[in-house]
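TICKET #2291
ISSUE: user wants both folds in one file
ATTACHMENT 1:
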Amino acid sequence: MSIAIVFPGQGAQKVGMAKDFYDNSEVSRKIFDVADENLDFNIKDICFEENEDINITEYTQAAMLTACVAMYEEVKRQGLTADVYAGLSLGEYTALVASEVISFSDAVKAVRKRGILMQQAVPVGVGAMAAVLGLENKTVGDVCDEIDGVVVANYNCPGQVVISGIEEAIKKAGEKLCDAGAKRVIYLNVSGPFHSFMLEDAGNKLESYLENFEMKAPVVPYVTNVTAQYITDNSEIRSLLGKQVYSSVKWQQSVEEMIAAGVDTFIEIGPGRTLTGFIKKINKDVKSYNIQKYEDVETVVKAVKGEQ
């Protein structure tokens, strides 16, 4: 058995995430305490109490990282480890913490800065994103190539691609994609045109900011969104994290790469089941598990260890 542990990104957040881990696990509680020591707002209020800030990028990113790392630490304490880590967009930072590339205290400061840079990069209403359902990746890419101002932001799974860019160009592309046979084009409720050329300046500023933090070689490899390749040394990590802000997220390709390398079991840790759903559409033959509640940990650990 070869195991990949994967972490969701922005969009999966919900009020109450990891609260049961905080209540029941000392290692999880410690992560929230470290986050509060390194942030300029109360992370527990964002994650646990009803609020609107949880969906604002500059808060969401630190909250998601904290919740997912807190959950992962309890999974690790119960003896479940991976042969490779990966995360969707923001989730890649949780993978970096799990791979021991960066300390959690540094990572939470980095994603706080990342969220602010992404939030401020483009005025509200100038950019947009849309999910395209029911078309092949190449078809979506070809339509985007024909229209200035729109690019593929995410390759999520077969039949689900996200596009990003200038709002008018997104509308034009949406019409063309429907004409090309898309089942649906869904405009997303996001605060910016993420993973597009419009965030290149934010990505470059983030890369410079990351010079403040030590990045070690991964103890366990992780797969980067930018190239969908395994990363085993630390020579390109800062550069890749800068590019990730304005490059396509190659999630489908990342999962296919892990399967080609022998991964047969995926465990998603974090709120929701988004990645588990994508993985099932990418390859129905691999096993996939999901941990989003404290009680899930024991169930999944037993199931996985029973198969080893």
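ATTACHMENT 2:
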Amino acid sequence: MIAEIHTEKGLMKVEFFEQDAPNTVKNFTDLAKKGFYDGLTFHRVIPNFVIQGGCPNGIGNGGPGYKIDCELDGENQFHDKGVLSMAHAGRNTGGSQFFICHSRDNTAHLDKNHTCFGRVFEGVDIIDTIGQGDTIDKIVVVGEEA
């Protein structure tokens, strides 16, 4: 399954780690299909670290109204450039907030602590152009990769 993250800076295409993080992928794609992410911002941008979005309040303190468990045992639990991972306020407290890694340089400590559930495979250059407050126009789940 893949998705398109449409932003004001361009389009990023994502492939999901369905084998490693099936519940996290389902949660993210279900929210995307409902339009939850449409119009939200990247509320946290730290250069050479991550861009973070998915907070309905726009300041990092909101979510969908429920929490999901972390999935940390898969083969793809490494925070490399372009990897999507679930943000949380402690183990098993994720919901809708996610981040995309700028690089591996400053993210290795997140391995096996935050659920990696996909990676940007097209439009990776867009990650470095996103600034704090930039908008997620929409996230479209397009199905199986060709």
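RESOLUTION: both attachments delivered.
EXTRA DETAIL ON ATTACHMENT 2: The chain has one domain: 2-143.
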